[in-house]
Design a protein that fits this description.
By secondary structure, the chain is α/β, with parallel strands linked by helices. The protein has one domain (4-182): Dihydrofolate Reductase, subunit A, CATH 3.40.430. Helices cover 23% and strands 29% of the residues. It has helices at 30-33, 37-45, 53-56, 101-112, 123-131, 157-160, and strands at residues 4-11, 15-17, 46-52, 74-77, 94-97, 116-120, 137-143, 151-152, 165-171, 177-182. The strands form two sheets. It has an eight-stranded mixed beta sheet with strand order 5-4-3-6-1-7-10-9. Strand 9 and strand 10 form a beta hairpin. The protein is globular and about 40 Å long. The two termini are 16 Å apart.
Protein backbone atom coordinates (compact mmCIF):
# COMPACT_ATOMS: atom_id res chain seq x y z
CA UNK A 1 0.00 0.00 0.00
CA UNK A 2 1.31 3.42 -0.89
CA UNK A 3 2.38 5.99 1.68
CA UNK A 4 2.19 9.75 1.51
CA UNK A 5 5.65 11.08 2.27
CA UNK A 6 6.24 14.79 2.78
CA UNK A 7 9.83 15.86 2.38
CA UNK A 8 11.73 19.08 2.61
CA UNK A 9 15.23 20.43 3.15
CA UNK A 10 15.58 23.06 5.86
CA UNK A 11 18.36 25.14 7.34
CA UNK A 12 19.58 24.49 10.87
CA UNK A 13 17.42 27.41 12.02
CA UNK A 14 14.32 25.91 10.36
CA UNK A 15 13.91 27.84 7.09
CA UNK A 16 12.95 26.27 3.74
CA UNK A 17 14.22 29.28 1.79
CA UNK A 18 16.12 32.47 2.49
CA UNK A 19 14.64 35.96 2.91
CA UNK A 20 14.68 36.48 -0.89
CA UNK A 21 12.83 33.18 -1.47
CA UNK A 22 15.84 31.30 -2.82
CA UNK A 23 16.53 27.65 -1.96
CA UNK A 24 19.97 27.61 -3.61
CA UNK A 25 22.00 27.54 -0.38
CA UNK A 26 19.99 24.54 0.84
CA UNK A 27 21.10 22.53 -2.18
CA UNK A 28 24.76 23.49 -2.45
CA UNK A 29 25.45 19.73 -2.19
CA UNK A 30 22.95 18.69 -4.88
CA UNK A 31 25.35 16.64 -7.02
CA UNK A 32 26.63 14.77 -3.96
CA UNK A 33 23.10 14.36 -2.55
CA UNK A 34 21.84 12.80 -5.79
CA UNK A 35 24.27 9.91 -5.23
CA UNK A 36 23.02 9.07 -1.72
CA UNK A 37 20.85 6.11 -0.78
CA UNK A 38 17.92 8.19 0.61
CA UNK A 39 17.72 10.16 -2.63
CA UNK A 40 17.89 7.07 -4.85
CA UNK A 41 15.34 5.27 -2.67
CA UNK A 42 12.94 8.20 -2.94
CA UNK A 43 13.18 8.27 -6.74
CA UNK A 44 12.68 4.49 -6.96
CA UNK A 45 9.70 4.34 -4.57
CA UNK A 46 7.76 7.38 -5.76
CA UNK A 47 4.77 6.84 -8.02
CA UNK A 48 3.32 10.38 -7.99
CA UNK A 49 4.29 13.85 -6.78
CA UNK A 50 2.26 16.64 -5.20
CA UNK A 51 3.57 20.20 -5.19
CA UNK A 52 2.30 23.74 -4.88
CA UNK A 53 1.99 26.16 -7.77
CA UNK A 54 4.95 28.29 -6.58
CA UNK A 55 7.22 25.25 -6.63
CA UNK A 56 5.89 24.26 -10.05
CA UNK A 57 6.64 27.75 -11.40
CA UNK A 58 10.03 28.13 -9.66
CA UNK A 59 12.15 27.25 -12.68
CA UNK A 60 12.90 29.69 -15.49
CA UNK A 61 12.47 26.79 -17.91
CA UNK A 62 8.75 26.20 -18.58
CA UNK A 63 9.50 22.58 -19.51
CA UNK A 64 11.75 21.75 -16.51
CA UNK A 65 9.68 18.65 -15.78
CA UNK A 66 10.92 16.93 -18.97
CA UNK A 67 14.20 16.15 -17.17
CA UNK A 68 12.75 16.10 -13.63
CA UNK A 69 14.17 13.33 -11.46
CA UNK A 70 10.67 12.10 -10.61
CA UNK A 71 9.36 10.79 -13.94
CA UNK A 72 5.86 10.24 -12.59
CA UNK A 73 2.50 12.05 -12.66
CA UNK A 74 2.68 15.45 -10.94
CA UNK A 75 -0.29 17.00 -9.16
CA UNK A 76 -0.05 20.75 -8.66
CA UNK A 77 -2.21 22.20 -5.90
CA UNK A 78 -3.42 25.64 -6.99
CA UNK A 79 -6.33 28.07 -6.94
CA UNK A 80 -6.06 29.01 -10.62
CA UNK A 81 -5.20 27.20 -13.84
CA UNK A 82 -2.21 28.46 -15.81
CA UNK A 83 -2.82 30.26 -19.09
CA UNK A 84 -1.10 27.44 -20.97
CA UNK A 85 -1.27 23.77 -19.98
CA UNK A 86 2.06 21.90 -19.92
CA UNK A 87 2.47 19.10 -22.43
CA UNK A 88 2.96 15.52 -21.19
CA UNK A 89 6.59 14.40 -21.42
CA UNK A 90 7.64 10.79 -21.04
CA UNK A 91 6.05 9.38 -17.90
CA UNK A 92 5.33 12.88 -16.56
CA UNK A 93 1.84 14.29 -16.75
CA UNK A 94 0.81 17.50 -15.01
CA UNK A 95 -2.59 17.77 -13.33
CA UNK A 96 -3.66 21.04 -11.71
CA UNK A 97 -5.85 20.37 -8.69
CA UNK A 98 -8.22 23.20 -7.81
CA UNK A 99 -10.37 21.49 -5.19
CA UNK A 100 -8.01 21.11 -2.25
CA UNK A 101 -5.31 18.99 -0.74
CA UNK A 102 -7.58 16.01 -0.04
CA UNK A 103 -8.41 15.76 -3.75
CA UNK A 104 -4.75 16.11 -4.72
CA UNK A 105 -3.75 13.26 -2.40
CA UNK A 106 -6.61 11.06 -3.58
CA UNK A 107 -5.70 11.60 -7.26
CA UNK A 108 -1.97 11.12 -6.59
CA UNK A 109 -2.57 7.89 -4.65
CA UNK A 110 -4.68 6.55 -7.51
CA UNK A 111 -1.93 7.39 -10.01
CA UNK A 112 0.85 5.99 -7.78
CA UNK A 113 -0.76 2.58 -7.30
CA UNK A 114 1.39 0.65 -4.82
CA UNK A 115 4.22 3.20 -4.97
CA UNK A 116 4.52 6.22 -2.68
CA UNK A 117 3.18 9.74 -3.11
CA UNK A 118 5.83 12.39 -2.50
CA UNK A 119 4.78 15.83 -1.30
CA UNK A 120 7.64 17.97 -2.57
CA UNK A 121 8.16 21.66 -2.45
CA UNK A 122 5.96 24.12 -0.76
CA UNK A 123 5.85 24.59 2.98
CA UNK A 124 2.18 25.50 2.70
CA UNK A 125 1.26 22.30 0.83
CA UNK A 126 3.24 20.21 3.33
CA UNK A 127 1.53 21.91 6.28
CA UNK A 128 -1.91 21.46 4.66
CA UNK A 129 -1.30 17.75 4.13
CA UNK A 130 -0.10 17.24 7.70
CA UNK A 131 -2.97 19.28 9.17
CA UNK A 132 -5.48 17.19 7.18
CA UNK A 133 -3.93 13.98 8.55
CA UNK A 134 -2.86 12.83 5.08
CA UNK A 135 0.88 12.35 5.68
CA UNK A 136 2.25 8.95 6.72
CA UNK A 137 5.94 9.93 6.86
CA UNK A 138 7.86 13.16 7.16
CA UNK A 139 11.37 13.28 5.72
CA UNK A 140 13.39 16.30 6.75
CA UNK A 141 16.91 17.02 5.57
CA UNK A 142 18.82 19.58 7.60
CA UNK A 143 21.65 21.51 5.97
CA UNK A 144 24.30 22.88 8.35
CA UNK A 145 23.66 26.51 7.48
CA UNK A 146 21.90 29.38 9.23
CA UNK A 147 19.69 31.52 6.99
CA UNK A 148 18.50 33.90 9.69
CA UNK A 149 15.24 34.54 7.88
CA UNK A 150 12.91 33.31 5.19
CA UNK A 151 10.00 30.89 5.27
CA UNK A 152 9.75 28.36 8.08
CA UNK A 153 8.29 24.91 7.51
CA UNK A 154 6.65 24.81 10.92
CA UNK A 155 5.54 27.75 12.96
CA UNK A 156 2.88 28.46 15.53
CA UNK A 157 0.76 26.38 17.83
CA UNK A 158 -0.44 23.94 15.15
CA UNK A 159 3.06 22.48 14.92
CA UNK A 160 2.92 21.50 18.60
CA UNK A 161 0.05 19.07 17.93
CA UNK A 162 2.00 16.97 15.41
CA UNK A 163 3.11 13.63 16.88
CA UNK A 164 6.28 12.19 15.35
CA UNK A 165 7.99 8.82 15.83
CA UNK A 166 11.58 8.70 14.59
CA UNK A 167 12.20 5.99 12.01
CA UNK A 168 15.85 6.79 11.30
CA UNK A 169 18.55 9.44 11.03
CA UNK A 170 21.37 9.30 8.48
CA UNK A 171 24.42 11.57 8.24
CA UNK A 172 25.07 12.27 4.58
CA UNK A 173 28.11 13.72 2.81
CA UNK A 174 28.42 17.50 2.91
CA UNK A 175 27.00 17.71 6.42
CA UNK A 176 23.38 17.04 5.38
CA UNK A 177 21.35 15.12 7.96
CA UNK A 178 18.45 13.02 6.64
CA UNK A 179 15.70 12.28 9.16
CA UNK A 180 12.62 10.14 8.65
CA UNK A 181 9.59 10.24 10.98
CA UNK A 182 6.25 8.43 11.13
CA UNK A 183 3.46 11.01 11.57
Amino acid sequence: MSKVIAGMTISLDGFVNDSSGSVASLYSDLETYQNTEPYKESIQNTGAVIMGKNTFEMSNDPEWYVDYEFQVPIFVLTHTLPAQQPKPAGKVSITFVLDGVESAVKQAKSAAGIRDVAVIGGASVTRQCIKAGLVDELQIDIMPILLGGGLRLFEGSEAASIQLDRINVVNLPGGRIHMKFRV
